Amino acid sequence: RVDAAQIDEDALGRDAVEMPHHQVGYDVRSRTHDGHYVFIEVKGRHPGGEDVTIGRQQVLFGLNSGDAHRL
Predict the structure, then answer these.
(1) How many CB atoms lie within 10 A of CB 11?
(2) How far is CA 16 from the centre of its chain?
(3) Cα–chain-centroid distance for residue 55?
(4) pTM for this structure?
(5) Separation of alpha carbons 33 and 15, rounded Å
């Protein structure tokens, strides 16, 4: 799933880097053409699953990052 996010970001001409698993709040940091960063939290579900769980730190990071955060 993280690989798919990186492929999509690369297709947009961005520099996407997977973050270490202990990184709090996002899975991929992507640099845009104008030098800004986009922080991407990748989520998935098991086949047939209906729920996605978002941790407290991920929510707080997203709130503090505003438009630079993607879920």
Answers:
(1) 9
(2) 10
(3) 13
(4) 0.83
(5) 9
Q: Is 69 helix (H, G, I), strand (E, B) or coil?
A: strand
pLDDT along the chain (71 residues), means of 10: 92 94 86 95 86 88 92 87
Q: Three-state DSSP class for 12?
A: coil
**Could you report how far apart the first and last alpha carbons of the chain are, in Å?**
12
Copy the structure tokens of residue 48: 């047939």
Name the nearest CA neighbour of 54 among 71, 40, 70, 35.
71
Tokens representing 9 are: 């970001």
Instruction: Please check whether residue 24 is in contact with residue 56, taking contact to mean a CB–CB distance below 8 angstroms.
Output: no
Using DSSP's 3-state secondary structure scheme, residue 32 falls into coil
Phi/psi at 62 (5° precision): -60, -45
